Model the fold of this input.
Amino acid sequence: MRRPTDDEMWNRVEFCRRLIAGRQRMGTIKRLFRQRFCDAGHRAIHRYLARTREESFAEIAQGKQVLRAESLAFYEHVIADP
Done:
């Protein structure tokens, strides 16, 4: 079995992030993950979920000022380039 590329890894982590944000149960997350990425076992799914949580906690650890600045920069970019 081959290792996923960085893009595939990012897609899988983002998929987990959306499922966690949608308050899906663990069984539902595993089922949906296997449907979308059929080569994943239960340990791999748990590793992706752990990575997703780590990234979420790292984002939360940033100060509110940093998050506000990033949000402002994003919306300024959207307004400037419709």
